[in-house]
Amino acid sequence: MRVVLKNVESPQIEYISPQILSDETMEIRKEKVIKTFVQEGYDCIIIYADVEHSANFEYLTGFIPRFEEACLVLHKNGDCYLLLGNEVLGMSKHSRIKNTPLHVPQFSLPDQPLEGKKEMVDYFKEAKITNKKVGLIGWKALYKINKDMFDVPHYIVEAIKTIALSVSNATNIMIGEVGVRRINTVDEIRHYEYGQVLAASNMLKTLDSLQIGKTEIEMASILESEGQRNNVVTIFSTGKRFAKANLYPSMKKMILGDAISMTVGYKGGLSSRTGYLVSDKNQLSETESDYIEKVAAPYFNAVRTWLENIHVGMSGKELYAIIDRCLPKKIYRWSLNPGHLAADEEWLCSPIYKDSNESLESGMILQIDIIPSVEGYSKPCCENGILLANEQLRERIKYQDYEMWRRFETRRQYIKEQLGIELHEDVCPLSNMVAYYRPFLLDKGKALSIID
């Protein structure tokens, strides 16, 4: 088999509606969290949140603290306290988890009224954590280094330590090997599919709109839609990136031969593409004219290998080794995990690393995230997400949401017929942009494909 650039039928733009999680799903989430933290030896957990690190909090409440901070205290008997700032306090009555709200002005914006003169420790006393074994949850897997290391503000940690019997980093309850957020139900898959489709559809519209002379801002406006909150900074960059440390789209115009980088992400996943603003290799510089053979084709073969080999039950190190064999890290200089989990955030965690004994499980949503870095060439990228589903989960999807199942099958057929990739039976593509890659961006009819 070899990789070729050929005429390929373009995917169709997909439109699906956002899906609100059911009350049953939210109750299941709460039960899973309590069961797990009790098994880990805690009397209660405290989840910290701010706008950038709010997904563990939102997992139970259904909302984020926006521009404020917040804490959720959950006891093993199911009692829940929400510690909220001035402008988010009113959300307690809309929360998906039954709760007692506690107004904590210290969680509000700078210089807003600090009514009352309570210390932080007083609020945690009201939340009944005194003399309890507390699991404190941030958002990083620092527990793998030290259970006494926390990615939570010092003033909160010190207040908890003052009255708790003990406090340890318990983020593994959410994202570790026992993490409840790693595995998704049919309802959650449907919820996250919307974000995957929205990102992919916007990416396809952007690819189809590329034109010499258009600005980064013009193109970025196509990447964004439907008023949804992004889970990554939206990228549209032409030519050299990060001039004067700028991360955001500007009025810079695209010119022939530019390297282009595009990324957009929402709940459930991300879509990312790179390439050159050319019609064929003759428009590349002499040193980059072998881009397909030298970089893009080996990369695309790695994507194919990932999709054809990933399956339920394999270890993370097994998949890592497969990618390292077909796209040697020493040559292609990829440095991160060749794949990771996605949820409300773009990168939840990753079971795929060199010495990982973590198992890839049914219900996981994963991003194909392999980023080679070959000196002198643009980095290739065609990142999108998939669901891992064993036969039992696939049957549940067919029964509970046949329309979603039909979308999976339509995408699978497209990837096989147009791109020459035979997905493993456990792989359900979460959008029709999975593995669709145009390295020469002005030739909108051609994409990379596998042929015998």
UniProtKB/TrEMBL annotation:
Family annotation (InterPro entries): Creatin/AminoP/Spt16_N, Creatinase/aminopeptidase-like
Gene3D superfamilies: Creatinase/methionine aminopeptidase superfamily
Protein name per its UniProtKB record: M24 family metallopeptidase
UniProt organism field: Faecalitalea cylindroides
